[in-house]
Structures are given as structure tokens and as C-alpha cells.
Amino acid sequence: MPENSAKSFFFPMKRSAFQVMLKPVGPACNLDCTYCYYLEKKNLYPFAKGYRLNSDVLEKFIKEYIQAQDVPVVSFVWQGGEPTMLGLDYFRKAVELQQKYSEGKRIENALQTNGTLLTDEFCEFLHEKNFLVGLSIDGPRELHDHYRVTVRGEPSWNKVMEGVRLLKKHNVEFNTLSVVNDKTSEKPLEVYRFLKSIGSQFMQFIPIVERHTSDPGEEDVHLVHHRYRGKAKVTDWSVVPEKYGNFLVRIFDEWVRRDVGTYYVQLFDVTLANWMGESNPGLCVFSETCGDATVMEHNGDLYSCDHFVYHDYFLGNIKETPLLDMMQQEEQARFGLEKRTSLPRQCLDCGFLFACHGECPKHRFCTTEEGDRELNYLCKAYKIFFSHVRPYMDYMAKQLNAKKPPANVMQWIKQKEQPVMASRPAAGRNDPCPCGSGKKFKQCCLRIFK
């Protein structure tokens, strides 16, 4: 977008209606990513003969989902597992059903995929039907292939990049979803610059945090939710909070100086939305409450959230209970409100509560110094990030309030840093940074010159 437009920043608006993430293939996938939290959901369905939402249940879902939405635009989200394993004809049929029951509403579709099964024909369809594709890719080859491998243990990067080529060839709109783990968190700029190089203008960075127990219980699930009280250990591939905070800071420092209004990082957009006092910043983890985004499994089972597919959060099955009735259950309303009501005193007293709202309940398994439960594991990460971005967010918020483009922040920074740049030769790597931050030059503004 042009920098002279006050709209040169993307606010991803939260939908006024509820959303169901549909997993028509359940946890089935052609990859075997080490850190994937969803593959083991197969254990919840030990007698399943296959993972495929059959045509009758698919039609019932599409009909009820559209009818229940009191909005002019209805958005479908297709995920897995790997949904493209169902084949192109499955999605052709789905689009036909959407049109059959559209009732004059506009239908939008978003497909999350690892990209390895895309073909020319599939991409032609995605372009023709205006699907937004979310592509899972973690960065350059060595970072991506460390954990994202096929079921045979083979690297997947080459196949994903072929998917990127096909998406671009057929002008399919896509954004990227990249997991921040113990490896990628060490290489923030390598990841960010790589994603720009493949044509990703909208980026999502998802911190991977999982706890593993050796006592899976009746569910036979080893990756546990935040209220599991047995013995559980944070996995080796999970991101360290401080490293995640620094990962975000390093990318933000480059983005805020060069890329505002050109490239969009979901977390930065949502942060600015909260800085502006938006009631719905557009991302559930940074909203005050949640609960309006559920997930449906391959057999019609509905759960409270994609990250809470456990027996404790089961809402019912669409074959037995109407979709809207399940969404309006008291249990689901309580689930969403507890995002706010379960916060410990440390969060309630925090100056950044408005920006994070305790983040995702999935990560609230730590204890405060006062002994209160439900402290977020990533608390330190967000304090690092929010503290660092505060002056820039303040400036961009003022620009937006004045009906000016937040991209003006780039010129503002340039003017502020000219004296620092002039003093560059006098500062060694280990000297105090000339900007006055109190940090060593190598840990502060040296990266600007690089």
C-alpha cells in the first residue's frame, strides 16, 4: 500500500460471528513434523478406519454453518492434518455445497497446507475460487528440514518450495505460517528475510510450546493442556521465552525501519491494534476473551479450540446436536470468559495487560512468585517485546489517530538515528551504544548498520 495512505497498516479484524476450523482429514498428514501437537490426536480415535469427513456430514456442516452466521460474509477455514490429502474433487464438492446454501451471502475460503501435494490443477482451482492459502514453512532449508520431515523421515523443504512456485505461477494469494522453535528462534533475520524472498507479504510466527508427560492416561495423549496436574516437562523443541522475545525484537527492528506498509507481520499488526484500544484486535490469543473459534474433527466432533482437542473440552457431535446449539453451550461461554477471569494478580497488575491479555490459555501452566497459577510460560518473552516496541507503537498510534499513515515511523526513526550513525566510527562492538540505551553497541544499534 502507498505510504501516503492512513491505511498502510493491516488491522486483521475479528469476525462478529463465530468460526469453526474444519479438519476434514482430522490429524492425518503426509508429514511427520517432530513438534506437531496434532498428530497424536489419532489416539482419541483408536477405532477410526480412516480420517475423512464424509459427504453427508460435510453438507450438514456447510448448511448449518452458513445459516448460523448473521453476517454478509461467511468464512470457512480448512485445516488438518493435511487437508489436500482429500484431493481436489473433495474441495470442488465443498464449494458447490457452499453455493447451494449461501443464501446470498458471500463465501470466503482459507486453506492451511504444508504445500507438498499442490499441483497445477489444484492451484488453478484455488485461484479460480479465490482461496486464501496459508503455507506452513519455517524458513531456509536447514531450519525448515530440522523438524519438518515426511513420514519416511525425509526432508520436505524442496517439495514445499515447489508448492510456492505453483502458488505464484497461478497467482494464488498466500501467506506464511512459521513455527518459532528452539532452532528457528536463533535465526530471526534469516527467517524473516527468507520469507520476504519467496514473496510472503503476510507472516504469522507461531511460538511452539508443548509439555510432554510419560503418563498419557486414558486419552493416550502425551502432549498435555495447561491444567494437567501430573508430571510434565516442556519439550526440547519448545521455544525458550527469552529467545522468543528476542526473536520478535530482531525482526521488529528491521521491519519498523524498512517494511511498514509493505510487509505485514500478524503479531505487530495485532499489537498496534491493542495499542489503539481496539476491542477486537483480530487474534484470539491477544483478545480479552476467546471461545468464538472452535474446531471440528473428521467425524463431526466439536471441541472448544484447536489447541484444546481433549475429552475435557468436547462440545458434542454435529450428527447429534445442531452446530449453533453446541456453540451456545454454557461450557463454551465459560471457556472463553476464563481467559480473562483466571488471570493471576501478577497479570492484572502488569502494565502490558492491555497488549497481551494473558496470551493463550494453552501456555498458562506456570506459577507466579506469590504461588498463583495460570501464569503464561511466555510472559518474559512478551515483556521483552512490548518494552522494546513501546516508543514505536506510541508513535504509530498517534499517526493513526491523526489520520496519518503509520509507515511515517520509518522516517521518524531515520531522523532520530542520524546522530547515532554519525558517531558510528567511535563505537566499538563492546562499547556503550551511542543511542544511550545502556546496552552494548553490538547488542543494540550495530544491527542497524549491518
Model description:
36% of the residues lie in helices and 12% in strands. With 450 residues, it is an alpha/beta fold. It has a ten-stranded mixed sheet. It has a two-stranded antiparallel ribbon with strand order 7-8. Mean pLDDT is 93; it is low at 1-15.
Largest sheet: 10 strands, mixed
Strand content: 5-15%
Compute the CA-based radius of gyration. Answer: 22 Å
Q: Topology as H/E string?
A: EHEHEHEHHEHEEEHEHEEEHHHHHHH
Helix content: 25-40%
Q: Which whole number gives the mean pLDDT?
A: 93
Tally of contiguous helical segments: 15
Strand sequence of the main sheet, in spatial order?
Answer: 9-6-5-4-3-2-1-10-11-12
**Structural shape:** globular
Terminal Cα span = 27 Å
The chain-level structural class is alpha/beta
The quaternary structure here is single chain
**Unreliable segments (pLDDT under 50, ≥5 consecutive)?**
1-15
DSSP E strands, number: 12
Task: Please describe the structure with a list of short key phrases separated by commas or semicolons.
450 residues; alpha/beta; ten-stranded mixed β-sheet; two-stranded antiparallel sheet; 15 helices; 12 strands; globular
Task: Please give a quick description of this structure.
Helices cover 36% and strands 12% of the residues. It has helices at residues 55-68, 88-100, 120-128, 141-147, 157-169, 188-197, 241-258, 266-275, 323-327, 330-341, 345-348, 353-356, 379-401, 409-422, 446-449; strands at 19-22, 73-78, 106-113, 132-136, 174-180, 202-207, 211-212, 233-234, 264-265, 293-296, 301-303, 314-317.
